[in-house]
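Narrative progress, year one. The postdoctoral researcher (J.K.) led the effort to move from monomer predictions toward full complexes, under supervision of the PI. The following entry was the first complex the group processed end to end, covering 490 residues in total.
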Amino acid sequence: MFLGKVIGTVWSTKKDENLVGAKFLIVKQLDLNLNEKDSFVVAVDSVGAGEGEIVLVATGSSSRQTEITKNKPVDAVIMAIVDKLDIALKEYLVEHQE
Amino acid sequence: MFLGKVIGTVWSTKKDENLVGAKFLIVKQLDLNLNEKDSFVVAVDSVGAGEGEIVLVATGSSSRQTEITKNKPVDAVIMAIVDKLDIALKEYLVEHQE
Amino acid sequence: MFLGKVIGTVWSTKKDENLVGAKFLIVKQLDLNLNEKDSFVVAVDSVGAGEGEIVLVATGSSSRQTEITKNKPVDAVIMAIVDKLDIALKEYLVEHQE
Amino acid sequence: MFLGKVIGTVWSTKKDENLVGAKFLIVKQLDLNLNEKDSFVVAVDSVGAGEGEIVLVATGSSSRQTEITKNKPVDAVIMAIVDKLDIALKEYLVEHQE
Amino acid sequence: MFLGKVIGTVWSTKKDENLVGAKFLIVKQLDLNLNEKDSFVVAVDSVGAGEGEIVLVATGSSSRQTEITKNKPVDAVIMAIVDKLDIALKEYLVEHQE
């Protein structure tokens, strides 16, 4: 999985019929200091993630292993919202955005 | 999924027999300002996307999860046409090309 | 899929027993001006592609969705020979090599 | 698989219900001199790896082929702890961290 | 598949129980002049490859399509030993290391 931050939403009316109701979020990749990288993906949300939240994203066939994404043409899913990172001597507190 | 723009078509007569009728579109990858990157893929269209339209592309095994691509040797599919991106304080209006 | 050009062949005697008879071609990746990039893959041919031809290559699990590659340990397949690219105002004619 | 070093843990309360109990470790990629690269993934632990240990990580659908990760939305798993690398004339001893 | 050269072995005692007996080889990626690139993977050997040999490596789910790797958490397999490359006007002889 990669570490990311939700920064926006993609709206689409004309899409695969199995994707009606799916929420497409724009997720920027983060480094270990929680700084945003340039790269991003559009991922389906399966855990109620909101803008500004730090999340984990699973890609490829693994992204179809949730109730919401099963058998659907999606290759990235948000499957966890991150509370905290523990890294060696450093500790990052991630404040949730309500 | 990645954000892309349809810029052309690939024509092929000699291809896997399961791909007869499939439409191969050239999709350039976009950044969040909707500027084209250098990278591109050739993707099968499953939603009636046209040249100049902003789309979402799913890759890998996920690209075989549409009616049109099921069990076929394709690794990229256009599964949504983008209406609008909402990004934090910015808002991008995507005009559809008819 | 990516756009590529067949530039050679890989010969192997000692290989997985399911791969006996499979033809391994060296395919360089192309940009949209049909110039060769540095990157290349070794792909199994499923459509009778020859040296110098412009082709489409599908990778990953999708490369096992042809008669020739089914259930075999290959992760790249040539599944189409390209006749022509139509790109916006430009048109590229691809001459087949016989 | 890639060679990595466990450097930390990701904590998450709100996640896919099938992931309750899974341990998410931060794994930095290593070069052949065992120096850390910039890139990292968040991987589920299936072998009891601890911080500082050198491990192998399998990604993609292969990461779901362990008892712990089966049918779950994860795309990276630690499936081995490395004892030693033998490279040509060089030999790297990897000391385990207890 | 990519073209690689076996340069070493990874030893692991603590690993997924399905991987007992599997041989993990370190494979550096090669360019078309058979020069080693920086990138490498750790791959399971399915064809009896030895150090110094030029091989083909299949990655992803395709790496589980051999007798030795079936249903196991591995994402790279050596599935062929290369005898020779034929490239346009150039010909590379690959001498096997016994």
